[in-house]
Amino acid sequence: MSAKRGSQKSRPKTSWDPLARWYDGWVGKEGSKHHRKLAIPAVLELLHLQAGERVLDMGAGQGVLAPFISRAGGIYTGIDVSEKLLAYARKHHREHGKFVHGNALHLSGIPQFTPQSFDAVVFLLSIQDMDPLNEALESAAWALVPGGRVVILMTHPCFRIPRQSGWGWDEGRKLQFRRVDRYLTQLAIPLKPYPGQTGVSRSFHRPLQDYVNTLAENGLYMDRMKEIPTYKVKKTGPRAKAENLANREIPLFLALRAVKFLGE
């Protein structure tokens, strides 16, 4: 969905250029319904943005976060390794900030960036496209001022593991449940292609402990967590009541906020 994506310090490579046209058509200028109804509101809540604060969007994709940061009085910069996604970002949101092509895992090697130059760093549905995790969070910490915060919004790693989790139905109990086949093992998972795609991307699964511990190892200490269920409601059908209960109780997204230790 956003910056990949790779850890090479030379010219960055990405699997997202071939997907850019399809992804922009799916997400659109304003973001998908999941962006608008769930993901972006949660990010803005945790950011608690003040006018004039500088925000770095790591894995900006086509820049759907930019107008929200701009309207809140923030100064927006987005970075992504996909030149094609950034072309859409500039087309849609040039007036709301600037967009930089480069590998978000290695900000220190990009001339446009200097250490401790941002008040907040956001990973909006992009952290699970980045590997290694430590390099992504180390890069974010490098960019943050002491006391700055990082906000991560991702699909919930405990319940939404691509190809390793799914919905099940207990006929005896008339209960919809979430099945998890694997969790603790780190996985690089090729995502199931959708109609119209011309390439395949990968998602990097890690257990929740990896995020918490890696944040702390980089001087970023969690002070807030938000688990977010889907907005979808099924109105009819024999399983509607059970499906709605499951959707309310089993979250789709997880949002984390961490603050950079003042001594860093």
CATH A-level architecture: 3-Layer(aba) Sandwich
Helix content: 25-40%
Count of β-strands: 11
Tally the structural domains: 1
The largest pleated sheet is described as: 7 strands, mixed
Mean pLDDT: 90
| Global geometry | globular
Number of helical runs? 7
Which regions are unreliable across 5 or more consecutive residues at pLDDT < 50? 1-12
Going across the biggest sheet, name each strand in turn: 3-2-1-4-5-11-10
**What letter string, H or E per element, gives the SSE order?**
HHEHEHEEHEEEEEHEHE
Structural class based on helices, strands and sheet pairing: alpha/beta
Verbal overview:
- It is a single chain.
- The protein is α/β, with parallel strands linked by helices and 264 residues long.
- The chain has a single domain (20-260), classed as Rossmann fold (3-Layer(aba) Sandwich), CATH 3.40.50.
- Helices cover 27% and strands 27% of the residues.
- Helix 5 packs across helix 6.
- The longest helix has 15 residues, at 33-47.
- 41% of the residues are buried.
Keywords:
globular; two-stranded antiparallel sheet; 7-stranded mixed sheet; Rossmann fold; 27% helix; 264 residues
In brief:
With 264 residues, the protein is an alpha/beta fold. The protein has seven helices and eleven strands.
Question: Which helices and strands appear, and what pairs or packs with what?
Answer:
Elements: H1 20-27, H2 33-47, E1 54-58, H3 66-71, E2 75-80, H4 83-93, E3 97-101, E4 118-124, H5 133-143, E5 144-155, E6 165-170, E7 175-180, E8 187-190, E9 202-205, H6 208-217, E10 220-228, H7 240-249, E11 253-260
Parallel strand pairs: 1-2, 1-4, 2-3, 4-5
Antiparallel strand pairs: 5-11, 6-7, 8-9, 10-11
Helix pairs in contact: 5-6
